[in-house]
Amino acid sequence: MRYYLLIATLWLASSLCSAQTSDSLIVNQLRGKGVSFSHDNSVTLLMSGQEKFDDMFQAIRQAKHSVHLEYFNFRNDSIASLLFDLLAEKVKQGVKVRALYDGFGNSSNNKPLRKRHLKEIRANGIEIFEYKSLKFPWVHAVFNRDHRKIVVIDGQIAYTGGMNVADYYIKGTKVVGEWHDMHCRIDGSEVNTLQKIFLKMWNKVSGQHIDGEEYYRKEKQDYLVENLKPDTTATAYHKTVGIINREPHITKDIIRYFYVNAINDAQDSIKLISPYFTLSPKLKKALKRAVKRGVKVEIMLSTRSDIPLTPDCGFYNAHKLMKAGCHVWMYTPGFHHTKIIMVDGKFCTVGSANLNARSLRWDYEENAVIVDSCTTHQLDRLFDREKKDSFLLNEQNWREWRTGWQRFRGWFAAKFLTPFL
Predict the structure, then answer these.
(1) 174: which residues sit within 8 A by CB, 6+ positions away?
(2) Claim: this prediction has a pTM higher than 0.85
(3) CA angle, residues 217, 374, 224, in degrees to nearest 5
(4) All structural domains of the chain
(5) Confidence (pLDDT) at 220
């Protein structure tokens, strides 16, 4: 009798678990890892560099108290010059402006901020600090970089996503042509989470102790930020959003945990765009298992990239996953630096993390997990539009597109270099 009761209990538990939808599963899983969710958020997707900078500049112009910026890098070009000029004007109006950038991120781009630029920026009243400057013997530069992209204005609205501050998000580059990426603007309780992340890093780097109610969202806002791109979905200000924040030694596995569980939870469809598709063994296995469960897995990668070798590894992984039943779309007009996943049309993520070892094992990263079908469908439609400029990978065009040497290079990178790419 006890045996039959045990079997019945296990069957009931299994039935209840399988009855859960992917969105409720991922929320419960992330809550178990300490991630909090709020339900009063608006999320506006900014689908291009032009949209992002137009919207963000308009919001900064209306700032009353504080503007906080955390970026991997501010490239020393025209868009950064416009931004720092605007921020200098806000300082004259009494607004506190604080900016963080990563030392490796600054030094590794071909138009870094030099000492003379930083001197001028600081002379204009902008507080700006560098996280881990690049110094001999440079070994430390490999680990724990600040790869986040966060802007918080008056503790009222926030921006996050995949873009730094650079002209090429609008103009592209000679090497890759068009540069595609995206950001989002959040208006709601999760602004406070992003502000906490920024202030923790700011205090760590600057040695200051900035905090207090003035930096956080109030129940009744001081003013309405006007003339921004609206969230036109039916769920505006009712979206469930959580912020997954990767901090080395503290929440070191949270981004990987999210992606693996999001893929494992999928019951119908997965759509994924990634610029650096080097993948850990757990992610590869999760994607293959999803196909075996009958989930339609669609992956979009770019044929062009801004760095060598890493894309070869990604192409090798894409070919293997194509053979396992994934639909792999190769985007041709330019470089898709977008980092998003959409699951079952129910939830998605927009943020800074790539699917490579740096993002998943080393760097400071942050993603917004948006549990909302309206926002997810907006990204689904973006994915479907981009298919028109892509080819579907198959065995024939794989061998026509990739030479024997390129295929070997990808195999070598995937087998031996994945933990370092």
Answers:
(1) none
(2) yes
(3) 30
(4) 22-223+238-420 (3.30.870.10)
(5) 73
